[in-house]
Amino acid sequence: MAGNRLTVEVALVGPREGETCSLAGFDFKAGVAEVPRHAATALHILGKYHSAFQVDSREYEEAKAKWVKEKASAESTGAADPKLVSALEDAKSHINSQGAELERLRAELREAKAASAESAKAQATTELAKAPAEETLAADTKAKGKGKGKE
Q1: Mean predicted confidence (pLDDT) in 91-100
Q2: Exposed, middle or buried, 46 (CB in 10 Å: 0-12/13-18/19+)?
Q3: How far apart are CA 148 and CA 151, in angstroms?
Q4: pLDDT score of 139 more than 70
Q5: Is 28 left (phi over 0), alpha (psi -120 to 50) or beta?
Q6: Cα–Cα nearest to 17, from 75, 60, 78
Q7: What angle do CA 65, 69, 74 make, to 5 degrees?
Q8: Which long-range CB contacts under 8 A does 85-89 form with residues at least 24 apart?
Q9: pLDDT (0 to 100) of residue 118
Q10: pTM for the whole thing?
Q11: Crossing angle, helix 58-76 and helix 82-150, to 10 degrees?
Q12: Whether the Cβ atoms of residue 33 and residue 1 lie closer than 8 Å to each other
């Protein structure tokens, strides 16, 4: 990196520090990515939304100091690890969204069963209504046939 002046190192600060991940199109390995020096918009987005700053910059030093202070404050009050809290909140959100989807599917299934039962009931009623009418028609035809033969 020292010989390459077209890129700068950007490091994650905070709960994601040291992670290997992909953010805003840049691959971070052990919390560090190389970003083109002239990509001001990318550098801004990485800093604002992902807490990733150019190493040895004023923003990096300020963010690092703020994170250390927050972490120390959390440890002194007995608060949980911020990474763990974040992971638990993500899991809870995922479970809630899955639960809502499951409930929606259950409601659709109940509606489909009700519609199917209603359709089967209507079909059975129609068949029952046809059966006596057909028997009556057959009996009438038979009776008419007997009456014609006597005339």
Answers
A1: 74
A2: buried
A3: 5
A4: no
A5: beta
A6: 60
A7: 150
A8: 86/15
A9: 86
A10: 0.47
A11: 80
A12: no
Six token digits for residue 120:
């089967």
Beta-bridged to residue 10, according to DSSP, are 33, 54
Instruction: Return the residue matching tokens 């290997």.
Output: 20
Helix (H) or strand (E) holding 104: helix 82-150
Contacts of 86 (CB under 8 A, 6+ apart): 15
Give pLDDT tens digits for 15-59.
888 889 988 889 999 999 999 988 889 999 998 899 899 998 899
Tokens read off for 105: 């599917």
pLDDT confidence of 73, banded at 50, 70, 90? confident
What distance lies between CA 116 and its chain's CA centroid?
30
Distance between CA atoms of residues 64 and 80, nearest Å: 19
